[in-house]
Write a structure and sequence with these properties.
The complex is a heterotrimer of chains A (273), B (369) and C (304). Chain A has 273 residues and is mostly helical. In chain A, 74% of the residues lie in helices and 0% in strands. Chain A has a single domain, classed as MetI-like fold (Orthogonal Bundle), CATH 1.10.3720. Chain C has a two-stranded antiparallel sheet. Chain C is 72% helix and 2% strand. The chains are: A mainly alpha (273), B alpha+beta (369), C mainly alpha (304).
């Protein structure tokens, strides 16, 4: 680092650090798919040979399919509802001056930093006092609380960056509220909405803590995994399932983030110089 | 306040945000086909007034009439006005042709006719062939013309323009000013133009309303505003002006007898102002209305002597700051260089004589801020 | 010519409908009312009930709802609770600090040394975070286990003779796992605040004679403090309540307060106790948070 040039020469040490860092970040997670092909119930080196039998076993388990179905169903409902709630909240906050809006926002974003267990037990307590039995619906509610902050956090910047004058221009040119929303607002926030849907689905799909406290007899995939962890011979099958989930999550999140970037980039390019 | 010829009639309109009075009971009449400007500094209320015409701000008190119809219950999308926004508000997800044709959807015209109208409009603003481009591919000036085209295609009765030339550089701005004037004359509709640039307002407008603090100070043609400003604020806002303190010695036959700092005893028409003896007033004169002489001129007009403190050369003319005895601040004089005699160049330190024509002096009351 | 009709000026608009149309606040709140409702039912009300339940006691299969401070008294008196709380804060605290220390250079690298495709790096760094927490913790069990990756690799390479025991089922394991799992929560705020630093400030410092190390200490570090503070809270707070990691790899030594709370709602079936513990946890988090904020403000003044 020569003093005086601010665009620094690449710092070798930092570069190496960065690469090692990324390597270590991904490595443990990559062991899962690796050993899911291991022909042994023990996860250790050296590997015993490659096999796909754990995946085959996974395929045949009805309970797995049931849990998967539950996870997907809850995921879809939660993502749609949380994104919808996030859209109206983001629209309301950016369009109108609402008293106490920072307090409301802080409250909505609370699940992002307060330990999940607190929300889990709090909801559990509420539901039991109300006499509502635990089921996939209660799980859905729990997921909703967790996903809503993510939806709002994804949507708010897009609504904020959206210029009010575009709404006004549309009205000025003769379109009423509904048409303005349909022709101007919606197309511009659509990428954000899509990103929010994908993100919240992924979060709901992977969610464990709230589900742990709020589920009844129907389980979701993470709960199923947890229940299998006490049986050592189930280990490789769990590895296989985890690999599948990991792969799907990675893809969904990557797509969601990419869509988010793309939409934002396009808008920045359109700013008048 | 009621004028049967007014196309836009703003009557006692006020606007409050909570306890803050943004517009103070303003009344204004704008004629059909007029190029009317609202001129003022930031915060003067000019944009608020414009937005009230468009319908984006509600009217707290008073009423707005356009072409005889009251607008209080008419939402923006139903008003016969269209607006060119300050940042143009071009829809980034649509191309140029879709932008320009945006308002046509409602009219349910056949597609071919719509395309025809869009092409015509693009030609009118000299952007023919740009239909497929997107907003981010256009320059500021081009975007401005698209915004214009998009508004004019709907043949509004009134076009509102919110500081549309502010973001352009000087040369482009001057070009666009000519363009706008030409367009307005050709189309013949009423333009209401908001700007903080007084030169721009003077260039473009048939009439100007000078605004400050939510109120209208004066409404007049550019020449009248320049030559005969009615208050000190208006005088200072338009062009450059010298202000001299003066004391009233007496009033007689519609003339005020004054003792003016630096210029001595003068009589000026009072123009209906009621002034008491001993009152302090202000006498204003434009820098270019003062004449420099290198020696005492022999004519009948009054002349005063002073010393040049500072000269600024500007090519066609020079600005002279002349110190007069009894005057707190130097007088600013703008004099054409072609009139300076080479044998007697006007330099710093020289003694000069100043004269003026009688109607060049303007009597103003002291500002009440 | 047009005539302007005579109408009363300032037409009065009465009634709720008119007020509604003019009040921005009312329209805004109405628009987001479903969201507000969900927040109320999902967060506000449950928390209130939780607090209330902390004052109850268990009675048979139900609750004795006479308000009492018994639970809180127990928490204060019985050493197990204090031990677990202290241990949780220590483990979380260490994990948080280690995470921040390890992630800072990474964030620094991307903010200052990456000039193209910054987005790509950010996506790469945060991608693991978006997958199941359970799976990531599970991944570490695979790595650290008695017959896990590290041990079997080292054994077969001949580096050790017997499997390392401390790797799994210990506080160390919990710390390592937490550090890895929460890295993204450190990288993002650190990156954002480093990225925001006006490069011309650094140039000015160099111009005035600072070498790279001094420049870092005097300009970069203080200006990145908001990011450090944010990272601290984003990691410390959630990890104190974590029960998954300790359950999977903490062993008896590594159990944390989250496990205790979970037990109260599970086998032990003493819900009021669990509620009280939750409240205590939250209060302690709040207190520690304030202390930390105070310390950083002090540090900022010292560094300046």
């Amino acid at each position: 680092m020569k003093s005086g040039t601010y665009i620094k020469r690449p710092n070798r040490a930092l570069q190496i650090y960065a690469c090692v860092f990324l390597f270590v970040l991904y490595l443990p997670v990559l062991f899962i798919p690796l050993f899911s092909f291991n022909d042994s119930i023990y996860v250790r080196f050296p590997m015993q040979g490659l096999t796909t039998r754990w995946y085959v076993d996974l395929w045949s388990r009805d309970t797995v399919w049931a849990a998967l179905g539950n996870s997907v169903t809850v995921g879809i409902w939660v993502s749609v509802i949380s994104t919808g709630l996030g859209v109206v909240a983001a629209r309301a906050i950016t369009r109108y001056r609402i008293p106490g809006q920072s307090a409301i926002l802080t409250f909505a974003l609370l699940p992002l930093i307060v330990p999940g267990i607190i929300f889990g037990v709090a909801l559990l307590v509420l539901l039991s006092r109300l006499g509502i039995p635990l089921s996939l619906y209660t799980v859905g509610l729990g997921h909703l609380i967790i996903c809503l902050p993510f939806a709002i956090a994804t949507l708010l910047p897009r609504f904020e960056g959206f210029e009010r004058s575009l709404d006004e221009a549309s009205a000025d040119l003769g379109e009423n509220g509904w048409w303005t929303f349909w022709r101007v607002t919606f197309p511009m926030v659509a990428p954000g909405i899509l990103a929010s849907l994908l993100l919240t689905f992924t979060i709901s799909f992977d969610e464990f803590i709230m589900t742990f406290f709020l589920s009844g007899t129907d389980t979701t995939l993470p709960i199923y995994i947890w229940s299998q962890l006490r049986f050592p011979q189930q280990f490789p099958v769990v590895l296989a399932m985890s690999s599948v989930i990991l792969a799907l999550s990675f893809v969904m999140v990557f797509v969601a983030l990419w869509i988010g970037r793309m939409g934002v980039a396009r808008e920045y390019a359109d700013d008048p110089q | 306040m009621k004028s049967p010829d007014a196309f836009i009639s703003i009557r006692d309109v006020g606007k409050s945000y909570g306890t803050f009075r943004a517009i103070e009971s303003v009344s204004l009449d704008i004629a059909h086909g007029e190029f009317f400007s609202l001129l003022g500094a930031s915060g003067s209320g000019k944009t608020t007034l414009l937005r009230m015409l468009a319908g984006f701000e509600g009217v707290t008190s008073g009423e707005i009439f356009i072409d005889g119809a009251p607008m209080s219950d008419v939402p923006p999308h139903k008003r016969p006005v269209n607006m060119v926004f300050q940042n143009y508000a071009i829809f980034p997800h649509l191309n140029v042709a879709q932008n320009v044709g945006y308002g046509l959807r409602r009219l349910k015209l056949p597609r071919a006719r719509q395309n025809e109208m869009v092409d015509e409009m693009l030609d009118l603003v000299q952007l023919g062939g740009y239909g497929a481009r997107r907003a981010h591919e256009l320059s500021g000036g081009q975007r401005q013309r698209i915004a214009l085209a998009r508004a004019l295609i709907l043949k509004p009765k009134v076009l509102l323009l919110d500081e549309p030339l502010g973001a352009l550089d000087k040369q482009l701005r001057e070009q666009m000013q000519v363009e706008l004037r030409r367009l307005q004359r050709a189309i013949g509709i009423t333009f209401v133009f908001v700007t903080h640039d007084q030169e721009e307002a003077l260039t473009l407008s048939d009439r100007i309303a000078v605004m400050d603090g939510g109120a209208i100070l004066q409404v007049d043609s550019p020449a009248a505003l320049y030559e005969r400003p009615r208050t000190r604020d208006v005088a200072g806002f338009i062009g450059n002006m010298n202000f001299l303190d003066a004391r009233v010695k007496g009033m007689a036959h519609g003339y005020a007898s004054l003792e003016v700092d630096g210029l001595g005893a003068l009589n000026l028409p009072a123009e209906g102002k009621q002034l008491v003896e001993g009152a302090r007033v202000c006498v204003a004169i434009r820098p270019e209305k003062l004449v420099l002489h290198d020696s005492l001129p022999g004519g009948p007009e009054k002349a005063v002597q002073g010393m040049i403190e500072l000269v600024t050369y500007l090519g066609e003319r020079s600005h002279y700051h002349v110190r007069l005895p009894g005057c707190a601040a130097p007088l600013a004089i703008s004099f054409q260089n072609s009139r300076i005699k080479p044998a007697h160049p006007a330099q710093e330190g020289r003694t000069v004589w100043i004269t003026w024509t009688p109607d060049a002096l303007i009597l103003l009351e002291r500002a009440q801020k | 010519m047009v005539t302007v009709p005579d109408v009363p000026l300032g037409r009065p608009r009465k009634g709720f409908a008119a007020w509604f149309r003019r009040s921005e606040a009312a329209q805004g709140l109405a628009l987001m009312s479903p969201t507000l409702l969900v927040l109320l039912i999902g967060i506000a009300v449950p928390l209130v009930i939780l607090i209330t339940m902390g004052f109850w006691t268990r009675e048979g299969f139900g609750f004795d709802t006479t308000p009492t401070l018994d639970n809180y008294a127990r928490i204060g008196a019985e050493p197990i609770f204090v031990t677990f709380l202290a241990r949780s804060f220590m483990v979380s605290g260490i994990a948080t600090l280690v995470t921040i220390l390890l992630c800072y250079p990474m964030a620094y690298y991307v903010a200052f040394h990456v000039h193209r495709n910054k987005m790509l790096w950010i996506v790469l760094m945060t991608l693991p975070f978006w997958t199941s927490y359970l799976l990531r913790v599970f991944a570490w069990r695979v790595v650290l286990g008695y017959e896990g990756v590290v041990n079997s690799a080292f054994l077969s390479l001949g580096w050790i003779e017997a499997p390392l025991e401390f790797l799994l089922y210990s506080q160390t394991a919990v710390i390592i796992t937490l550090t890895h799992a929460w890295a993204a929560f450190a990288i993002l705020p650190l990156y954002v605040s480093l990225e925001k630093i006006d490069k011309s400030l650094l140039e000015a410092a160099t111009d005035l004679g600072d070498g790279p190390v001094r420049r870092f200490l005097r300009i970069t570090l203080p200006l990145s403090m908001p990011g450090v503070v944010a990272a601290f809270f984003l990691i410390f707070i959630p990890t104190t309540g974590d029960f998954i990691t300790p359950a999977l790899l903490g062993g008896p030594d590594g159990m944390m307060i989250g496990n205790l709370i979970q037990l109260q709602f599970g086998p032990v079936n003493n819900w009021p106790m669990g509620a009280a513990l939750s409240i205590v946890l939250m209060l302690w988090i709040g207190a520690l948070g304030l202390v930390f904020l105070f310390l950083t403000r002090l540090a900022k003044r010292r560094l300046a």
